[in-house]
Amino acid sequence: MNLQQKCFTLGFILLTSLMLWGCAQERKEVAQEETSESAETQSEAKKTNFPNKKSELSLLMRSMWDSLDNMREDIQNERKISDLRAMFKGIHTATPTDEHTKTEVYEPLAVAFNQNLEKLYEAEGKDMQLKAYNLLVESCMTCHEQQCPGPMSKIRKLYVKNED
User: Fold this and answer.
1) SS3 135
2) CA distance linking residue 113 with residue 152, whole number of Å
3) For residues 100 and 125, is the Cβ–Cβ distance under 8 A?
């Protein structure tokens, strides 16, 4: 092979390498942009799903809904349930979106919720836990019938349907 052929071959290899490297970098940037856009879309969806302002109580109740949804799956799959009692006690002190939300019936309903939560942790076996879990969800529904009916359709989704 003469010098001209060697230079041509070397140039071809160098050019091909640069093109492949450039394509790989472009793919990496496109993948990062897609991941970033997906995360932004999910974040926006989470922000826009809630019509009310973000008060301590509304944020706590949204977190409670997520926790109860996970708990339902854990009970159904006979996994150990997380201890949420400390977090849920915040319903007594959290500031609501509207000061009129906490009427005279609110506190007794919050106490009943925490009592039903205790019953859930005392329940043994899947069937008893599911019954206690549904009772806990029912306490959410009872309160929201009195105080703030907006989330009731979402809360209904937490119930465990009878397998009979």
Assistant:
1) helix
2) 15
3) no
* Single-letter amino acid, residue 72: R
Residue located via tokens 């465990």: 160
Query: pTM of the full predicted structure?
Result: 0.66
Answer yes or no: are the C-beta atoms of 148 and 101 closer than 8 Å. Answer: yes
Here the tokens at position 103 are 């009427």
Cα–Cα distance, 147 to 104 (Å, whole number): 10
Torsional sign, CA 121, 123, 126, 128: negative
Rounded Cα distance between 130 and 145, Å, is 22
List pLDDT tens digits, range 3-30: 877 777 776 776 676 666 666 666 666 5
- Cβ(121)–Cβ(85) under 8 Å? yes
CB 97 within 8 A of CB 55: yes
Residue 85 in contact with residue 114, Cβ under 8 Å?
Answer: yes
